[in-house]
């Protein structure tokens, strides 16, 4: 059943609607919330929302409890190919937990938090951005590692990355929910503005597996891959030193040798290579730049090395 | 005056982006005060005000106290301004949410670091700012709370001679602003908010240049007579009374401006239907006081704060 979580009048004969699809099984099973579309340019979760709802509806008798799917927390952004909220120029994932007495975006995020609170688990699906392609991964703030690390491998991702806490991340949905006692896992997968169905299928299986582990799904699900858990390993960030056009020279997801060439930054004006991009440490290339234009500082790759 | 380049960024197909600084006073003198202008591409008034400040300080350079140095940085982000983009044009990140910056990080972190390394050791820091919501303010000094140093700054803030000093409590996201990080590095930091952002207001620029020079005079950086000013009113941002569109969106027909004094119950604006012009909602002042902020966009959504009022004491 489609329900409205937040509604506000726009200036001309339209409402901004944040909607969810509530799918109820039988019995008093757990409630799982699946959220996506906080960033309007990230579409990988659109496939996951569609496919998850389709599979649940096809086999409703296997569902115990409730699955709430929120496919578009930022519907105007999705409509206009904008990461933030149009006209407000705001990154919604820097406005949580919101404020019911504030401006529209804060009221909306407060309504979303309020609606999800109390769920047994929440999964917030992101798709990196238009610049970077990511292997399916769960990102966990180290302060919530104890409660989330046991759940993360169920999602069928390649990588679980436990990262250091940063003050700015306190304004994300995941932080706001975890802080209030509702477990929330953040998934990053694929690339902005595109859909990678193979990743999406794995995530749908993963969500059903997670639900099954909580007693909410009786259907069979293939066994999960064992993800690499990056906790103490060194993550190498390769940022451009030179401006130009980045051309990758390795495949995303491959394992790099020490000192291997990842790509080049070239200058089409002169026909020269301005920079060789080299992974000093080698390891799993889990992030690779998709959008070719780079400035000094632009991230081109992240490589997961061995233990520190 | 000495024109210097504080930071250079090489770019694809454009000239290198430079952050230009103007230094006044003793080149080896104490780093007394840094003034930073626009960081976003739409902060036209902030850039213009700084350009006027550079012009004024050239005239007043002989009045810089011996052993003191002033640095003015009119534009941190000319690249975005030149292409009419509010944020960094490639990835839409806000430079004022990347401080203290990181010289090996993302592009905007490098820009922030380039600026911060040039301004972080000044004793006093002034930034000309804009708010994310479009609208007009009563000119004021804003302090972002960051511990003891903010209390110290509060005692200095009347030096600007502006009518209001507003203190705000930072969100976690706000701890990445220049103002906050200046304070972490022991600079007394002040954010100045003028009337406008996206268009040039000559009178507003003159007022802000005078306010900055007055402040520098009270701090013993400039040898200038300090004009009389009414002591400012200090208010907590959370103490401003918000008036919001609770029920409707449409045209915002405003009957009050920033700076107006309004009585409790007075009509501040009507929200008018965009297709048939019937009045959908009337916004009234819940308290008597001065309109501190008003929204200036013609269109408005439901749940938008259109006015903030500083209630009469
Ligand atoms: Zn995202």
How far apart lie the N and C ends of chain B?
Answer: 45 Å
Q: Roughly how many Å is the radius of gyration of chain B?
A: 20 Å
| N- to C-terminal distance of chain A | 49 Å
**Major protein interface:** A-B, 38 and 41 residues
Oligomer: heterodimer
Order of helices and strands of chain B: EEEHEHHEEEHEHEHEEEEEEEEE
Structural class computed from helices and strand pairing of chain B:
alpha/beta
Bound chemical compounds: zinc ion
Low-confidence stretches of chain A: none
Number of strands of chain B: 18
CATH-level-2 architecture of the largest domain in chain A: 3-Layer(aba) Sandwich
The H/E string of chain A reads EEEHEHHEEHEHEHEEEEEEEEE
Largest sheet of chain A: 13 strands, mixed
Output the strand order for the largest sheet of chain B: 1-2-4-3-5-9-7-8-10
Kindly identify the CATH topology of the largest domain in chain A: Aminopeptidase
């Amino acid at each position: 059943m489609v329900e409205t979580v937040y509604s506000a009048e726009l200036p001309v004969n339209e409402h901004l609607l944040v909607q969810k699809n509530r799918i109820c099984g039988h019995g008093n099973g757990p409630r799982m919330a699946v959220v996506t579309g906080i960033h309007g340019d990230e579409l990988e979760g659109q496939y996951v929302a569609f496919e998850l709802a389709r599979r649940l509806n096809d086999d409703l008798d296997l569902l115990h409890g409730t699955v709430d799917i929120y496919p578009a927390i930022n519907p105007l952004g999705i409509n206009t190919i904008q990461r933030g909220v149009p006209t407000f120029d705001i990154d919604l994932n820097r406005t949580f937990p919101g404020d019911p007495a504030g401006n529209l975006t804060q009221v909306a995020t407060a309504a979303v938090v309020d609606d999800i609170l109390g769920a047994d688990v929440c999964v917030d699906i992101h798709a990196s951005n238009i610049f970077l392609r990511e292997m399916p991964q769960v990102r966990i703030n180290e302060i919530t590692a104890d409660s989330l690390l046991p759940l993360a491998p169920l999602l069928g991702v390649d990588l679980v990355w436990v990262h250091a806490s940063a003050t700015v991340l306190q304004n994300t949905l995941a932080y706001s929910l975890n802080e209030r006692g509702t477990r929330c896992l953040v998934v990053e997968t694929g690339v902005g503005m595109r859909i990678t169905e193979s990743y999406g299928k794995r995530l749908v299986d993963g969500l059903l597996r997670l639900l099954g582990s909580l007693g909410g799904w009786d259907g069979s699900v293939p066994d999960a891959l064992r993800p690499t858990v990056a906790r103490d390993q060194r993550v190498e960030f390769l940022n451009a030193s030179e401006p130009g056009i980045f051309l990758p020279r390795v495949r995303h997801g491959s394992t790099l040798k020490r000192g291997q060439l990842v790509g080049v930054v070239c200058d089409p004006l002169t026909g020269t290579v301005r920079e060789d991009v080299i992974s000093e440490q080698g390891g799993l290339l889990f992030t690779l730049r998709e959008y070719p234009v780079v400035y000094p500082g632009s991230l081109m790759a992240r490589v997961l090395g061995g233990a520190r | 005056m000495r024109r210097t380049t504080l930071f250079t960024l090489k770019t694809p197909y454009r000239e290198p982006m430079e952050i230009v600084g103007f230094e006044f006073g003793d080149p080896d003198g104490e780093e007394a005060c840094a003034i930073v202008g626009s960081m976003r591409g739409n902060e036209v008034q902030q850039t213009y005000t700084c350009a006027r400040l550079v012009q004024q300080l050239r005239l007043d350079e002989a009045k810089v106290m011996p052993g003191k140095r002033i640095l003015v940085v009119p534009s941190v982000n000319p690249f975005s301004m030149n292409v009419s983009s509010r944020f960094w044009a490639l990835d839409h990140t806000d430079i004022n949410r990347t401080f203290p910056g990181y010289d090996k990080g993302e592009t905007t972190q490098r820009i922030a670091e380039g600026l911060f390394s040039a301004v972080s050791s000044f004793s006093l820091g002034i930034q000309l700012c804009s708010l994310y919501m479009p609208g007009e303010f009563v000119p004021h000094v804003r302090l972002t709370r960051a511990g003891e140093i903010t209390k110290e700054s509060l005692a200095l803030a009347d030096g600007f001679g502006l009518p209001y000093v507003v203190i705000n409590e930072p969100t976690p996201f706000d701890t990445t602003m220049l103002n906050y990080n200046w304070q972490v590095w022991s600079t007394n930091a002040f954010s100045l908010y003028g009337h406008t952002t996206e268009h040039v207001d000559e009178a507003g620029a003159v007022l802000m240049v005078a306010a900055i020079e007055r402040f520098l005079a009270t701090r013993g950086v400039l040898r200038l007579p300090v004009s009389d000013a009414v002591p400012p009113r200090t208010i907590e941002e959370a103490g401003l009374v918000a008036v919001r569109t609770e029920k409707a969106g449409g045209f915002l027909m405003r009957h009050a401006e920033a700076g107006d004094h309004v009585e409790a119950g007075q009509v501040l604006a009507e929200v008018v239907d965009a297709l048939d012009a019937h009045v959908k909602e009337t916004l009234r002042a819940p308290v008597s006081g001065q309109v501190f902020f008003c929204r200036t966009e013609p269109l408005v959504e439901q749940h938008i704060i259109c006015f903030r009022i500083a209630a009469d004491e």
